[in-house]
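hey m, so remember when u said the tokens were messed up on ur end? i reran from scratch. heres the input so u can diff it against urs
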Amino acid sequence: MEPKSTKKNRPNVLIIVLFSLIPLTILVYFILQMVFPSLFQSMPTGDVQPVRPDQ
């Protein structure tokens, strides 16, 4: 049997926090969108606009 190692290959706590912030911000966005729908109405949606060569 192999001896149990007390040191494990674990990521840094900062890495865990940063990766857990991604789903948390998405969840907060959807909660805010459900509670305050008028808050996000003025956000630009990236609609395609025609290109005019004279401008």
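this time it looks ok to me. Residues 48 and 54 are 18 Å apart (CA to CA). if urs says something different then somethings off w ur setup not the seq
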